[in-house]
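worker-03 picked up job from queue 'complexes'. Input manifest follows; four sequence lines, order preserved.
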Amino acid sequence: MSGRKHLESTLAGDHAGARGARKQLTRDRLLDAALTLMSEGHSFPSLSLREVTREAGVVPTAFYRHFHSMEELGLALVEECGVTLRRLLREVRKAGVPTTDIIRHSVAVYWQYVRANPRQFRTAASERHGGSPAIRQAIRNEVNLFVREMAQDLRMLGYRSDLPTATLEMICSLVVNTMLNAASDILDLPPDQPQLARELEANFVAQIRLIFLGAEQWRAEPAG
Amino acid sequence: MSGRKHLESTLAGDHAGARGARKQLTRDRLLDAALTLMSEGHSFPSLSLREVTREAGVVPTAFYRHFHSMEELGLALVEECGVTLRRLLREVRKAGVPTTDIIRHSVAVYWQYVRANPRQFRTAASERHGGSPAIRQAIRNEVNLFVREMAQDLRMLGYRSDLPTATLEMICSLVVNTMLNAASDILDLPPDQPQLARELEANFVAQIRLIFLGAEQWRAEPAG
DNA sequence: TGTTTCAGTGAACAACTGTTGACAAAGCCC
DNA sequence: GGGCTTTGTCAACAGTTGTTCACTGAAACA
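worker-03 finished. Artifact:
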């Protein structure tokens, strides 16, 4: 019952054998099914267990082999979105620092990233304020992680090195909020309206620019 | 069938007679029930028609005397939230312009307003990105209305009168997004943590301040 | 006054929900 | 190979859902 192998297999995502691989596959199919249903207009709290298993091509009872409840699936989904977000950060970082018009460039990367992963971003935006308290908290954690990592990046770049970390994080959190709002906006556009999309992007760039304009003016001792 | 009186009573919210008043009352009870259930952790898309009528103390079929579907109730709810928001704007406006530390003052009013109407703000934040497409669109309209009104207020105050309206609205939309995010954050705090609430408020004030710091620096011709 | 209109009731329906237990087959370990 | 473990299936349950229809009683109207 409590053999070593069993313990291993219950830890996160080991699943080396052919059996574990198969399990991971249908687990992924369940997560994918939920993501797909949500991108089709459903919202997560209204998803039923049976709907998800139907979409995944599995019998309802099989669900319990992977999650205790829909809420647990939701948390797994949040983690997946977090991974996606952090991958984005790594990509932007890897793209180097053009120093000239860095904002427009970063926004462009972000924009294309949102369009490439619409389901994850819709889910993140949708559950951030709407889901169950537990899921909301999980997303908050994920977002905070992202914010902290981003602030650290700014620090590494030597941006406003006179400011305390808390202030940098305050700025980044403002940026991230704006990012997520913009993602939700763009994903609600009818896909055949490139003009509206461009206006939205321009507005988004302007807002980010405005934030950094404010950040450059921020006094280290804002006591007024 | 098409008498004058009947026509009147189908128009929005006339309901002068004793009958109309009674109808309006249970309609309000339905809306209130939905709001209450949502503030208890449920999210709107997962609310069932029967749950709402149960909470409102009426039989399920009575629902149809007021709304065709839950989605229609949702739209009515959005409108109610919009009214709440505009009342807020009027209150801030009425409070006068202290000119000194206007941001901290406005934020304080807003803060207390959120705490006084938690159910409306939770609903607004929750459905803004999460609800059905129709409801999402309705909220977007409501928010845009608010943004436009706020931009007009800034103009009346003579704030950055050199900027085009579109730019003012871009700024206000950033402010409103930040406001709604902060509302969602504060409403998720455990109610016995005044220290966290104060930190949250300080962070919120800082973000708004940062935005206006950027706004003051914004060049009328941002072509770079 | 008598008649009409209509918000709210009650019973009933078919469909769907989450969850159960026993069972088949395939992977795993000895 | 044989026995244990485990993923997925099948059948079935009790409860809830949205919606229907015929109804009651009181307010509104003539």
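worker-03 released lock.
The longest helix of chain A spans residues 70-94.
Residues 3, 5, 17-20, 22, 48-50, 60-61, 63-64, 69-70 of chain A lie near DNA strand C (CB under 10 Å from a C1').
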